[in-house]
Amino acid sequence: METVVVVILALGVLTTSLKLGFHRPRWWWVWAAVVAVGTGLAWPLAATQSKTQLADFLQNPVMMGDTAVLLTLEVVLMLAWCLTDGQPAAGRWRWMRKVVGGMLALFPGVVSLLAIFSLLTYLVFSLTGTAFALISWGLAAAVLLAMPALTWLLRLLLPERELRLELLFMLNLGIGALGIVATVNGRTAVEGTASPNLAQLAALVALCLAGTASGWLIWKKKHKLNP
After folding, report:
1. What are the two backbone dihedrals, phi and then psi, of residue 88, each rounded to the nearest 5 degrees?
2. Domain boundaries, the chain
């Protein structure tokens, strides 16, 4: 389960960098500076954490439920911006779409912040004997340089705006799916069974095949009428 959480955090960093790539370079540095300052000032909080905090967090159903809500909210906001940016503003309410799209464009994501704080906590407990403030501000300097560099690299590798937008959409779908896996944490609503109902399974397969055949016949009929 910890691996799933690490993957979610890594994807969060990628989505933030992709999202920043749709803005001008000066916005990259502004956001990187804000995150760097926050990282440098976060060492007192990181020093109060424990080595087993992640394991304890994963075993806490209440905290995992709250995290699922926040993660879902971020994914929804990211997907809403992808859909808004991918469609031209037209019609009677185009001004509202522009306003909403502009507000969504300013949201870079918070999963990357959790990833940076998790890295800071790990470094605090790994670099024993080193001043906490030094570790924190050292990581802040690295973030200040790495975040714009990663954004620039993604724009260099993916120069097409539409391709980056599609990748951002798919990554957020992946974060949402992994978030469900992580927050369920081994709990399911129903218990599994070792003796499946073959009759119901056969009925479901027959229904799917019938629907597929019907759709194919309808498509063939329309194709003949409108070649």
Report:
1. -65, 145
2. 2-184, 197-227
